[in-house]
Fold this sequence. Notes:
Elements: E1 6-11, H1 18-28, E2 33-39, H2 50-61, H3 66-69, E3 72-77, H4 81-87, E4 92-97, H5 100-116, E5 121-126, H6 136-144, H7 155-167
Parallel strand pairs: 1-2, 1-4, 2-3, 4-5
Amino acid sequence: MSEQRVAVYPGTFDPVTNGHMDIIARGARIVDRLVIGVAVNIGKDPLFTLDERVAMVEAEIALLPNEDNNRITAVPFDNLLMDFVESQGSNVVIRGLRAVSDFEYEFQMASMNARLNDRVETVFLMASENQQFIASRFVKEIARMDGDISSFVSQRVDMRMRAKLSRGP
C-alpha cells in the first residue's frame, strides 16, 4: 500500500470564513489527510484565542460530509511552518489564492519556505469564484461595525463573532 498523502493548510483562521472552508473541502479531495494548521500568529492581533479558533475550525469541519471530515484535523502550532509540516508527516502545504494581489505575497512565502526546507512543496488552489473577495480582516471589520457578515461565514461563526464582539476580547 502506498504512503498517505498528507497536506497542511496553515492560517490564522480568525475567523474561519466560507473562503477557508472552500479551500479545506477542495484540498481534502486531493490528499488522503488534511491538517488545518491554526497558527498562533500574535503579530496579527487575533480577535479569538488560539483555542477558540481551533474550536471554530473543528466545528466547521464536523459539518463536512463524513468521508471528508474524518480525514481533516485542526492542529494549533507556534513554530516555523516547515517544522510543523514535517511534524505532521507531510511534505505539502496548501495555500489559497483569492486574487493576483495574493500571488506576490504567497510566492515570496513559498520561496522562503523552500529555502528553509526543499522537501516541502507548496500547492496553490484558486478560490472559487464566489469566495474570491472574502478576507478575515474585512469580515472582522464589518462585524465590528455591526454589518452583516452572514454571506462570508457560517451561521455558527457569525454567532460566535457577535458574542465575542458584544463582550469584548
